Amino acid sequence: MENIRIEKDDLGQLELPAEALYGINTARSLQNFFLSGRPIATCPDFIHSLAAIKEAAARANCEIGELTAEQADAIYTACEEIKTGKYDHHLVVDMLEGSGGTSTNMNINEVIANVATKASGSFIHPNDHVNMGQSTNDVVPTAMKLAVYRLMAGALWALTQLAEAFSTKREEYKYLLRLGRTCLQDAQPMSLGQAFGGYESVIRRHIEQSNQFASNY
């Protein structure tokens, strides 16, 4: 019994590992939504984005007087620690959880609250403080978008490398003739280099569009 603790909600009570920084909402998710076996912590950009949202919310709630400076600072510090991956083993909800994101949002809320409470010595509630003024329908889609923006730098680098590779092939095969294809039949002759050049052009257009998209955010 020394290695467990009891938490209660409207459905009853559950035994949790004593050292777990998540709470009963997360524990119920583990019972109900074990699907892929891949926890949310396996996507660090998503976790980083969730923590950034919680930081911003804490600052905003402090500015309007709904959180004390001490509460906001405790939440902010906890979020900064979570971004380092220090508490990944407590971010355990399945990536494919079927609650519309509620379990994901509560997992991060509970971990932030427990980390903040332990560090500050004052009670931080996962819903009343960490999740103040927020909805899962706002938090999770926003975190997904932020995670995509964080990942775009790597994707743009990879696309650029692919375009350069097609450019090399375009020059290498610019004199090698091949039949074009249209409507599933042979058509006007073209060089293999021209075909690679077409692929290169498509990739470069996507790079340009992605850069324009990213610059708006």
Low-confidence stretches: none
Q: How do the strands line up in the largest sheet? A: 1-2
Count of runs of 4 or more consecutive helical residues: 7
- How much helical structure, as a percent, in the residues? 55-70%
CATH architecture of the largest domain: Orthogonal Bundle
Plain-language structure description:
The protein has 217 residues and is mainly alpha-helical. It has 2 domains: 4-134, Fumarase C, Chain B, domain 1 (Orthogonal Bundle); 152-215, no CATH class. The protein has helices at residues 24-32, 44-63, 69-83, 102-120, 126-130, 136-172, 192-215, and strands spanning 4-9, 12-17, 177-182, 185-191. The strands form 2 sheets. A two-stranded antiparallel ribbon has the order 1-2. A two-stranded antiparallel sheet has the order 3-4. Strand 1 (4-9) and strand 2 (12-17) form a beta hairpin. The longest helix is centred in the C-terminal third of the chain and has 37 residues, at 136-172. It is elongated and about 75 Å long.
How is the secondary structure organized here?
Elements lengths: L3 E6 L2 E6 L6 H9 L11 H20 L5 H15 L18 H19 L5 H5 L5 H37 L4 E6 L2 E7 H24 L2
Antiparallel strand pairs: 1-2, 3-4
